[in-house]
């Protein structure tokens, strides 16, 4: 067929469309019968990625069974991270950011739909303390998430220490602490039946949208490309981050309103 393409280009295009349609149907049928995780890991292999273990790490945590109230979004989270940086040299940053986003999704569900106010206050306090002894004050289901969170940050801290860049992790921890404090404030509103003003809501909601946590966290593991000055800049709420936070927050709220 290819040898005749230059002689009869129109016929070639029609034949190509026919083959394309046939193969697309076969691929779709195959995908519908294949587990999502298997599709994703196969896709990663095709593109030369060695990050499969960073997805399988989630499977080992077994949150889908242990925390059935929470959304299982690790594949979705990883695709989001690939949009931030797909280049092979950023594999460490990708690994850390994937873990943080996936765990943040779990925490979001804990604060939004499952935890009691007393439990949420304990969890918030534990993250402010950021130490293993804080596990003792948490209910069992929260211990799973808290331990996984500590492990994720300890992993990247060890890697950054080798480069003499442990300060990077301190910035990421600080942003996470800010996020959970804002989560708790929204949870208090909900439990008390309080309706904030638009200005009051946006002050907190721009933090719970998580972009202000994810931005500095995404810098960790990118090597000498990111300096202390870069962290200080992103934590100063630059206009570009403020705008992204507003857009993300309002779009998320509109989708949530339509669903509910």
Automatic annotation (TrEMBL):
Residues 59-258 form the Terpene synthase metal-binding domain. Keywords: Lyase, Magnesium, Metal-binding. It comes from the Eukaryota. SUPFAM superfamilies: Terpenoid synthases (SSF48576). Pfam families: Terpene_synth_C. GO terms for biological process: terpenoid biosynthetic process. Its cofactor is Mg(2+). GO terms for molecular function: magnesium ion binding; terpene synthase activity. Pathway: Secondary metabolite biosynthesis. InterPro entries: Isoprenoid_synthase_dom_sf, Terpene_cyclase-like_1_C, Terpene_synthase-like, Terpene_synthase_metal-bd. Belongs to the terpene synthase family. This is Terpene synthase metal-binding domain-containing protein.
């Amino acid at each position: 067929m290819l040898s005749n393409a230059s002689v009869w280009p129109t016929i070639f295009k029609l034949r190509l469309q026919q083959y394309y349609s046939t193969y697309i149907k076969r691929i779709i049928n195959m995908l519908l019968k294949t587990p999502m995780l298997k599709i994703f890991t196969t896709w990663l292999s095709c593109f030369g990625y060695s990050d499969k273990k960073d997805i399988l790490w989630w499977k080992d945590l077994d949150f889908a069974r242990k925390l059935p109230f929470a959304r299982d979004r690790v594949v979705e989270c990883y695709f989001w991270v690939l949009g931030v940086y797909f280049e092979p040299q950023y594999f460490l940053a990708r690994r850390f950011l994937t873990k943080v986003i996936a765990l943040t999704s779990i925490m979001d569900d804990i604060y939004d739909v499952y935890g009691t106010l007393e439990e949420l206050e304990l969890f918030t306090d534990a993250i402010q303390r950021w130490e293993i002894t804080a596990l003792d004050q948490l209910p069992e289901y929260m211990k799973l998430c808290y331990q996984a969170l500590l492990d994720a940050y300890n992993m990247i801290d060890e890697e950054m220490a080798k480069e003499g860049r442990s300060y990077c992790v301190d910035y990421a921890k600080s942003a996470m602490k800010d996020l959970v404090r804002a989560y708790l404030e929204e949870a208090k509103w909900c439990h008390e039946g309080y309706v904030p003003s638009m200005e009051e809501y946006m002050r907190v909601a721009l933090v719970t949208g998580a972009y202000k946590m994810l931005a500095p966290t995404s810098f960790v593991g990118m090597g000498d490309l990111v300096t202390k000055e870069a962290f200080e800049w992103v934590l100063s709420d630059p206009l570009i981050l403020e705008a992204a936070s507003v857009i993300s927050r309002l779009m998320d709220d509109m989708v949530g309103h339509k669903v509910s």
